[in-house]
Design a protein that fits this description.
The chain has 15 helices and twelve strands. By secondary structure, it is α/β, with parallel strands linked by helices. The chain folds into two domains: 144 residues, Aspartate Aminotransferase, domain 1, CATH 3.90.1150; 241 residues, Type I PLP-dependent aspartate aminotransferase-like (Major domain) (Aspartate Aminotransferase, domain 2). The strands form three sheets. It has a seven-stranded mixed β-sheet, with helices on both faces. The chain has a three-stranded antiparallel β-sheet with strand order 9-12-11. Strands 1-10 form a two-stranded parallel ribbon. Helix 10 links the parallel strand 6 and strand 7. Helix 5 runs parallel beside helix 12 and helix 13 packs parallel to helix 15. The radius of gyration is 22 Å and the shape is globular.
Length: 439
């Protein structure tokens, strides 16, 4: 992740104790002479559980790019995963109207507005064919919050979760905070970054409680076809596991790829599946912070109880905006997908022209995940980066291009590039990348 001076700090293993500095750590030892206990200060006041959390690499890189731009640098960032489009007008207008309605000025149910829970249930039936009741839906402060709630509700200390890699940076952190352990199951380009049942079975132990399944994938853009989803789902069901499936990119698939919700093709998983989703990506609403989780009624009731003590209800105005989103005709989402598809093809083509870069074509989401291993140990702009963390630093400092190193996703040697940015900016950024790597 990016340090305060623009350099990339190596992220430690997820959920392992890390040293952090939060202020003066010298303390005052005068209490020791009298035997009196003194309150912890500085880093000593931070619990090991929280100190172990690594900052989100994607957000850190986006923040650093913004800082450099503010200082006058012409940085092009392929870092943060958010659409470059504004939220559609009808959604904004729904929020404006909600602001004026006194019903939205006070507390509401922690699990979400009843009409939004009902609308999400209807949207889920429409878009994925999964039939759920409103009581099975919990509205959260973004899909990231849903991921946190899911693992906090699901896991006991020592429980294991199978996490195919490359993985989104936040999953292992949430698993660790819940007391669980991430068991990473590597994938590679030979299978299109898709995990096999054989690899999952080899990683399963008596402590395995859940499988994390993500399609379309962040960061690789992998999309499992229906038969592959069913195969993995039948294995999970046979093993008696829970499945946590993140479907935030369901509307962003390209070419002949199709989105498949696992619980629709493996019915016996219906009582052991938690679906995470939200409005951030398909409706360009990353800043509105509305997501949801769908699961069995007892599970959702327990998670809502947790949320009642953690955050209470999601902001009512944002929920009203989300209601306008999930009940629309998806025309705005389709228009954005067409733009992302055009940029996807342009990015893959441009990367393919750079000698030494290998890139599996993404079929979903809005990221490319090329291998830059060929440039490690070689001279790039007068330096010899040994890792993609170091190479990303060179790209930022020498070409003013920000990318996310693969180490953040459990995949050293790769970088993630988002194509959710304007066409001209995308072309210029890729041109800078090509010029620098060409030497």
């Amino acid at each position: 992740m990016l340090g305060a001076r623009g350099r990339f700090d190596r992220p430690g293993p997820a959920c392992q104790h890390a040293t952090v500095t939060t202020g003066d750590t010298t303390g005052d030892t005068t209490g020791a002479a009298t035997g009196a206990a003194r309150p912890a200060t500085g880093a000593a006041a931070v619990s090991r559980r929280i100190a172990a959390i690594a900052e989100s690499a994607t957000l850190a890189i986006d923040r650093r790019a913004r800082e450099l731009r503010a200082g006058g640098a012409d940085v092009i960032s392929f870092g943060a995963g958010q659409p470059d489009f504004p939220t559609p007008d009808h959604i904004v207008e729904a929020a404006v109207a909600a602001c004026r309605d006194p019903r939205n000025h006070g507390y509401t149910a922690a699990a979400g507005l009843p009409e939004l829970r009902e609308a999400v249930a209807a949207k889920t039936r429409r878009d994925s064919g999964l039939d759920v009741a409103p009581e099975q839906v919990q509205i959260t402060n973004g899909a990231k919050h849903a991921v946190f709630n899911t693992f906090a509700t699901l896991l006991d200390p020592g429980d294991e979760v199978l996490v195919p890699a490359p993985y989104w940076v936040t999953y292992p952190e949430c698993i660790g905070l819940a007391g669980g352990r991430s068991v990473v199951v590597p994938t590679d380009p030979s299978t299109g970054f898709q995990v096999s049942v054989e690899a999952l079975e080899a990683a399963r132990t008596a402590r395995t409680k859940a499988l994390l399944f993500v399609s379309p994938s962040n960061p690789t853009g992998a999309v499992y076809d229906p038969a592959a989803v069913a195969e993995v789902g039948r294995w999970a069901a046979g093993a008696g596991l829970w499945v946590v499936t993140d479907e935030i990119y369901e509307h962003l698939v390209y070419g002949d790829a199709t989105f498949t919700s696992m619980a629709t093709v493996v019915e016996e998983l219906a009582d052991r599946t938690v679906v995470v989703n939200g409005v951030a990506k398909a409706w360009a609403m990353t800043g509105w912070r509305v997501g949801w989780m769908i699961g069995p009624r007892p599970f959702i009731a327990a998670s809502a109880n947790l949320q009642s003590h953690a955050t209470s209800n999601v902001a009512n105005v944002a929920q009203r905006a989300a209601l306008a989103a999930v009940t629309d005709d998806l025309s705005a989402a389709r228009a954005m997908r067409e733009a992302f598809d055009r940029r996807r093809r342009a990015m893959v083509e441009a990367l393919g022209r750079i000698e030494g870069v290998r890139c599996t074509e993404p079929r979903g989401a809005f990221y490319a995940f090329p291998s830059l291993e060929a440039f490690l140990g070689r001279e790039v702009a007068g330096r010899r980066p040994q890792t993609t963390l170091e190479l990303a630093e060179v790209l930022l400092e020498e070409a003013e291009v920000a990318v996310v190193p693969g180490e953040a996703f459990g995949a050293p040697g790769y970088v993630r590039l988002s194509y959710a940015l304007g066409d001209d900016e995308l072309a210029e950024g890729l041109d800078r990348l090509a010029r620098l790597l060409a030497g």
